[in-house]
C-alpha cells in the first residue's frame, strides 16, 4: 500500500524519532511511503523507511532539487500547498504526526476523500483515529485498509 506520512517541516526530537520509527515500520511491512518530500517529519519518516530498504516518494511543492536526502522518487509540482491534494489522493491511508496548518489541511482533505486517517500524537479531529505509538498506528492501518 501507499501510505502518506504527513507532519511539520520542522519538529521536535521526540516527533522526529516517532516519524523515523514509523517510516522504518512501514518499509518493513512493504508499504511505499508518500510525503511532501521536505524536512522535519517528512525527512525523518523517509530516512527511517530508506534505512529499512523501503521506497520513498516525495511530492514536492516546488522543484526536485528541494527533496530531502532520503527521497527516492522526487515529484516536482510547482504547486505549493496545492500539492497536498496529490499526496492525499495518491495514498491508501494517511498517518498524521504533529504539524501546523499544512498538516491540518492534509487531514481535512483525507477525511473529505474518505481516506483512513491515523493521528499519531497529532490533531484530535473527528474521523481521525488516535494512536500513541508508531506500532499502534501500524496496527490500526492493517485493520482498516
Question: Could you please describe the fold and organization of this structure?
Answer:
The chain is an alpha/beta fold. The chain has one domain: Rossmann fold, CATH 3.40.50.450. Helices cover 40% and strands 21% of the residues. It contains five helices and seven strands; from the N terminus they run E-H-E-H-E-E-H-E-H-E-E-H. A seven-stranded parallel beta sheet has the order 4-3-2-1-5-6-7, sandwiched between helices. It is globular, with a radius of gyration of 13 Å.
Low-confidence stretches: none
For the largest beta-sheet, the strand count, sense and barrel status come to: 7 strands, parallel
Query: What's the CATH first level?
Result: Alpha Beta
Question: How many β-strands, per DSSP?
Answer: 7
CATH architecture: 3-Layer(aba) Sandwich
Number of domains as seen in the coordinates: 1
Please report which band the strand proportion falls in: under 5%, 5-15%, 15-25%, 25-35%, 35-45% or over 45%: 15-25%
- Name the strands of the widest sheet in spatial order: 4-3-2-1-5-6-7
Question: What series of H and E elements makes up the topology?
Answer: EHEHEEHEHEEH
Here the CATH topology equals Rossmann fold
**Helicity, as a percent range:** 40-55%
Cα radius of gyration in angstroms: 13 Å
Could you say which overall geometry the principal axes of the C-alpha atoms support?
globular
Put simply, the count of helices is: 5
**Span between N and C termini?**
9 Å
Mean of pLDDT? 96
Oligomer: single chain
Structural class: alpha/beta
Amino acid at each position: 500500500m501507499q501510505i502518506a506520512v504527513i507532519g511539520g517541516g520542522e519538529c521536535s526530537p521526540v516527533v522526529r524519532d516517532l516519524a523515523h520509527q514509523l517510516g522504518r515500520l512501514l518499509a518493513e511491512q512493504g508499504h511505499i511511503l508518500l510525503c511532501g518530500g521536505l524536512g522535519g517529519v517528512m525527512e525523518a519518516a523517509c530516512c527511517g523507511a530508506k534505512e529499512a530498504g523501503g521506497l520513498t516518494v516525495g511530492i514536492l511543492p516546488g522543484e526536485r532539487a528541494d527533496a530531502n536526502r532520503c527521497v527516492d522518487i522526487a515529484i516536482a509540482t510547482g504547486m505549493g500547498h496545492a500539492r497536498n491534494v496529490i499526496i492525499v489522493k495518491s495514498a491508501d491511508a494517511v498517518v498524521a504526526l504533529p504539524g501546523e496548518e499544512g498538516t491540518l489541511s492534509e487531514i481535512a482533505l483525507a477525511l473529505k476523500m474518505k481516506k483512513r486517517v491515523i493521528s499519531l500524537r497529532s490533531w484530535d479531529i473527528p474521523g481521525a483515529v488516535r494512536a500513541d505509538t508508531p506500532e499502534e498506528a501500524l496496527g490500526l492501518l492493517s485493520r482498516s485498509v
